[in-house]
Fold this sequence. Notes:
With 141 residues, the protein is an alpha+beta fold. The chain has helices at 8-12, 28-35, 66-76, 93-96, 110-116, 122-140; strands at 16-20, 41-45, 48-49, 54-55, 58-63, 80-81, 84-85, 87-90. The longest helix has 19 residues, at 122-140. The protein starts with 7 loop residues before the first helix and ends with a helix.
Amino acid sequence: MTHMTLDASTLSSKRVVYVGGIADQATSDILHAAMLPFGPIKSVELPMDYAKGVHRGFAFTEYEDADDAEEAIFNLNGSELLGRTLKVSLAQPNQVNKLSASNEAVWKSDDWFKKHAGGIGEKTLKEQQDREKEASILHQD
Length: 141
């Protein structure tokens, strides 16, 4: 599957479908299989919440043909997938804005670094630098 670029021309083509209410255990492969009976799919985008490590509960599916997207909407809106009721509609620009919850990088906060970069805080970093300095002095002797 290719990565979709959701711009104004793609949205105006009426080939992109918004799928909301997706169960936590759903994957892009499961979603692809559920949407495939309505026509050839160009791409499936299942945005992730990287801070939590799970998808965000919605997706965008781009069909090769607008009529196939319309069929998917007609047949899947209100249907059930993995115990959850799907909300399926034509993708709108305001829905695409959901792709990025924030314009800030997740690693901007110190908490992210402490968790993902081995917990090196200022104190630990200073201790590590002191040990390296001592080691270099010992090796000079």
